[in-house]
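Researcher: Before we compare anything, I want clean individual predictions. No alignment, no superposition, just each chain on its own. First chain goes here; please echo the sequence and then give the structure tokens.
Model: Echoing the first chain and its structure:
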Amino acid sequence: MAAWVFGSTGTGHATAMSDLDLAVLIDGDISLMEELSLSADLAVALGRDDVDLLVLNSARNDLQHAVMSQGEIIYDRIL
């Protein structure tokens, strides 16, 4: 499992209007309900209602590459 912050927050260009873009790479499969639950749990844990979660397992290749090359990794556990 690994997690990145990306977008304006990840590049240091966030403003008061910016959301929090988070990407995760999950061990195995994740259902839509699990993804929504994870997003809600992150919002509560971070005290924000503007968390935008991207599950890299199901993201397009160009998004995966952009997050992994331009985002800031905030958690990494050897799979």
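Researcher: Okay. Second chain, same rules.
Model: Second chain and its structure:
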Amino acid sequence: MRRDIDRDTSNVNFKAPEQTGRDFDNVSPLEIFREVSAAGSEDMAALDELDHNIGQLPPEPLKAAEAIRSHLIKEGYEYGNSFRLQDMLKKKQGNCLGLACLIGGLLERRGFHPEYNLLLGPKDYAYSREVELFEEFVQGDHFDFDNPIRPLVSEEINDFTFVALEHPILVLNGKQFETTDLVPESEFENTKPFEIKSERSTKISYAELASNVLVSRAVSELFDNPKPNYALARKLLAEAIRRWPNNREAYAKIRNLANNFFDDEQEETSRKKYLALGGDDSRFFDEKYSITHDPSDLDKVLERHPSYIEAYVDKEVYNETNHRNARFAFAVAAQCVARSQTLDLGKFYVYNSKKFAKLFGKEDVVRFIVSAAEDFKDFFSYNIALYELTGDKKYLTKIKQDGLITCPFQEAFFYYTLEHMNGKLPKQYQEKYRAFLEQYGNRRTFNEQWTV
């Protein structure tokens, strides 16, 4: 079971996002980048200084983009996880989204007209090596079938993803330009430009590209903060859709939020919109599986992306009836997650703790969770998992004292776990649970997810 549980301390009103409004074609790209980043005037001053120091650009678009990238390298910029304008300028680093917005915006300010493509599941060298490594694990090259090794911690070098990601690139005079090659020219001067293949390529505008900064901010708010704010995340996602009404991934995130609040109307609206937007890529079919639970969707995911670990776990662990096969597959998945720059090993162990315990024993699972989830931010799921595994009520005390139940989904999870662990819901919680059921018990999204 996937526990995509987010947290918040506020009440959330899920209203359908506005899809009309301002004409973003009349706003400069860098101003759009400033807006979606929530950057200030001082950040724009720093950006102006960066632009000034670049100097005159060559007239040929591709060479102009290379000149901007070379200047960023000279200034010490590196590939990193920043995507907001102010963070990129301060830390001198950026990811593919941030760098595409920055370099594209600088080019447009100088009178160039880059195009923007959003690649889903880029098939580059790292992907090829990822699939090779995955196949090595599946074939038993790294551990015996009956002695599957699970990692205690993530690997220090994690160059892979094991999931299909969106990757924006610039297109200049019909040629792709990769913004993330922030390495000295001497390190790639002998390499020839090549076209990055992908599962899906979508031509988008700058405003649509920048809307993903809002989506990324929402995801960061939900998963990188000890006490995330649901209301802010929802506001960011609604604004992302206002700027790009067909932003498929924003609808997926809104649906997840709606499920956590048992909001039938918003879940239905976002689900229907997501399915209507459609796709023929692994990420679409993975999300579709969470809606339909049709095993054929998992097959479609893995046909397109064999090393897509979440789909692999659903198929080879949760849908596998052979205990030995499931144990081996779980270990394969854990080894891959430990080498992923995107997935989190602690999260993997916590969210799959019940299955982990059935396959390897409760005592083993506790040791792995405590080791791998040291920096895990979802404190509710961490403590409820350890309570399920150990029966130690100190974890319940931690949940109550620290106010870790911050959305209806988590409250339902709490009652479900207490009932499961005690045979019935303890008396001191029965009145609260009755009130909870009065509010949520008749909602479709509640009944589809929980039955206590």
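Researcher: What stands out in the second chain?
Model: The mean pLDDT is 91. Additionally, The radius of gyration is 23 Å.
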